[in-house]
Amino acid sequence: MFIKSDELMELPPINTRYKLGPKITDEQLAFLEAYGFVHFEGVASRDEVQGIISELDRIESEWVLEKRSSINGIPLFWGKDDKGKKFLQRFAFTSRHSNFISEFVRHDRFEPIRLLVGEDARIGEDEKDGVVVNRYMNVPESIHPRLGWHTDGLRDLCYLRMPQRMLNIGLHLDDCDTYNGGLRLIPGTHRQNFMSMCFKKPYFIDHRSDDEEICVTTKAGDLTIHDGRLWHRVARSKLYGQDSLRRTMFVPYLTGPYEPKSSGSKTPIYHHIGVAMRAAKSMIKQVMTRRDRLIQGE
Q1: What CATH number corresponds to the domain at position 32?
Q2: Which of the residues 20, 79, 239, 285 has an alpha carbon 20 to 30 A from that of 264?
Q3: 188, β-bridge pairs
Q4: How does pLDDT run across 190-200, given as a tens digit for each residue?
Q5: How far, in Å, are 90, 112, 120, 195 from residue 33 at the CA level?
Q6: Would residue 96 count as lying in a domain?
Q7: Domain residues for 229?
Q8: Within a 10 A sphere around the Cβ of 20, how many other Cβ atoms?
Q9: DSSP label of 79
Q10: Using a CB cutoff of 8 Å and minimum separation of 24, what contacts does 162-168 make?
Q11: Contact criterion met (CB below 8 Å) for 229 and 166
């Protein structure tokens, strides 16, 4: 356990949900510092959530016609849905292709979150991967049915240095309970030492449950903040097809030098590795499918 017992006595229960107000309260900050995450309910209205989803569907349709494979050097993750239709599972720079989403992420209600990251923090709509949307679906040809255990400090660890605090701000677009997969995290592990962050679990390939993990159950419109140094994963839904669909929009709040991406930007090396890994997984899946059909005499 990475949380001290005296802290647990002072904090509210770990499943506490807060309301996002004009500022982050001392209790909310203490909760985040101790557990490594904090959950705000009802930050977006149902109409706003539906508006974002409609924009995602529109953008996907346009990028299918354009045969887009990347945006500003960042690969798009294409899989297939339960009907075998091309299905975009990771959007990049989403707000730059939707005025509705851009205006939403810049709404005044998010000012307390910006200040939590830093006085000089900005929304990186043109930096890193921009506003990202992940769509998980449990179907055979999905490339994103789940995501294995990891921390977000892998790049820093490769340079043998401890990652600094990095906050992931995720807006949840679907109701999600433990049965439908969802975000699993191990509270307090943002305080772990170097060896634990490197070797506690095999990065991305370990999908096993952990005795200390919790599931962050959300309603559409909820917002969560979690420290990227936490061990976390996305579990596979026990539902199938459209019923298993889980969508989350991540808004990047950045400090430091302004580093915009453009159509001429190069693809980062870690994305090249990711593309190769997904291609390898797809090939292995095809081989296994053919083998099973041969065994069954098809």
Answers
A1: 2.60.120.620
A2: 79
A3: none
A4: 999 999 999 99
A5: 29, 16, 21, 21
A6: yes
A7: 16-267
A8: 19
A9: E
A10: 162/194, 162/197, 163/197, 163/228, 163/229, 165/190, 165/227, 165/228, 165/229, 166/227, 166/228, 166/229, 167/116, 167/117, 167/225, 167/226, 167/227, 167/228, 167/253, 168/225, 168/226, 168/227, 168/228, 168/250
A11: yes
Binned at pLDDT 50, 70 and 90, residue 160 comes out as confident
- Count structural domains, the chain: 1
Structural domain includes residue 108: yes
Rounded to 5°, angle at Cα 219 from 137 and 109 = 115
Residue 232 and residue 186 in contact, taking contact as beta carbons nearer than 8 Å: yes
One-letter identity of residue 218: T
Q: Reduced to 3 states, what is the DSSP secondary structure of residue 223?
A: strand
Tens of pLDDT, residues 10-67: 889 999 999 999 999 999 999 999 999 999 999 999 999 999 999 999 999 999 999 9
Residue type, 272: H
Residue with tokens 């990652």: 163
CB 41 within 8 A of CB 107: no
Report which of 226, 181, 225, 229 is spatially closest to residue 207, judged by C-alpha positions.
181
CA separation for the pair 194, 51 (Å, rounded): 42
